[in-house]
Amino acid sequence: MSLSPIQKAPLDVPSDLRRLYEQNFEEMTRGTGRLMMMAADQKVEHLNDDFYGRGISEDDADPEHLFRIASRARIGVMATQLGLIARYGADYPGIRYVVKLNSKTHLIPTKLGDPESYQWLDFEQLDRFRESSSLPVLGVGYTIYPGSRAEPEMLQEAARLVFEAHQRGLLAILWAYPRGEAVLSERDPHLIAGVAGLAACLGADFVKVNEPKAEDGRNAAALREAVRAAGRTRLICAGGKEESVPDFLARLHAQIHEAGASGSATGRNIHQRTLSEAVGFCNAISAITLDGASVEEATALYEKELAHASAVG
Predict the structure, then answer these.
(1) Which residues pair with 251 in a beta bridge?
(2) What is the model's pTM?
(3) Of residues 21, 97, 177, 302, which has the active-site annotation?
């Protein structure tokens, strides 16, 4: 099934806000129907593990590094918590934002308790922030953990969040990770497809999943089941842990151009690099996602931008 670059507003968007919804979608995807989302919510999810230490650029110790990257690189949106946006947004009004409305730390491992993550802010608070800040907030994000004992509460919150976002002409993105004592394999392809379909039932515009692990190693082919299960909810893949630029870009190209995914949400692989490397890497990701570039073309773009930054610096 192929999806159009144009997204019609679903019926839970009021008729007088459907054009706003469509404009937000077009702006978020830069008119392509595909999303290059810079995921910047790990300050909560992984605390400082992703921002300081061996192999991590010193630039990443400062939260403003996230905003410097997003303001200079070619991205669709940056997703992070409202507190960071409130602190730094005045200096970076050109970034398009997705507000992550729930988050949790990794301090309690799954073996000690099923994951729970609930909404931090209600929509009335978000409305006041949008009005007072005038920042371009295009959507909201929320994580669900199907398989957790807290699943019923999270699904109820997610359903209400999607509805409330659409009532305002905003887009809703669900992070969907099967996790908990009852989940035997979080990366099982059939299970990943199941949670993609669950996100569709919740009304999400995009669902972010981890790439499945296929027994035969053909992960992109396995991902195709999830893309089809998501239907008109567009599926994007998490970026995962750091790997070489060519390997990451090859995996991304297969996800989009073989499996049919609608983009990616990348965090650590971007922000753990120096500013120039991070910007170049974002632009290479966008070349594949938005322009249909080959792995070789995107890699060459990354290397060219690094060389230019080195020459200027």
Answers:
(1) none
(2) 0.96
(3) 177
